[in-house]
Amino acid sequence: MNKISAKLLLFFCLSLLLGGCGGYYFPGVYEGPEVSIYMPTWSNRTDKLGIDSTMYNALSEWFLKSDKIKLTKEKEGADMILAGEIISIHLPSIGWSSAARTTDVKVELVLRYVLKDLKSGKILWEAPNQIWTEDYNTVAQKAGSEDEAVKHILADVSEKIYLGTISRIRKLSTAGAAQ
Fold it and tell me: Which domain holds residue 158?
């Protein structure tokens, strides 16, 4: 009876393990039809040099995760356009020392971006005025901590844009297949 119970338990565990993996959904992976996205370098309306190329690189890293989505610098032949603008960057102080020196700063980055289907002209996603923030301590961190805070914001924004783009491409593919 012990051997039968052990075999039955093993069979039950294996069937749960193998059966549970078949329907798992990976939201960060796109496996639909190939899509080409024209992504120009974002406009930079701030005085922070290079933030536009840092944003482009951060987005590119995310889109490289999918074999089915190709980023291009050429509008011709692209299915969609993902364009954006870095509107402003603010560094409001939020903490002060007893010597009236800034100790905590919040980096505020204001962005806007749009994802548009070039074939239909339909706007799939638009974020007209999105504010992203990151705190950093000026006492405990080095002088480059502002740049690190900006990079952290851009990494978070890039992930959100990548996942949002995939979601909209899936919806578009599903709607196209239903027609």
Answer: 29-178
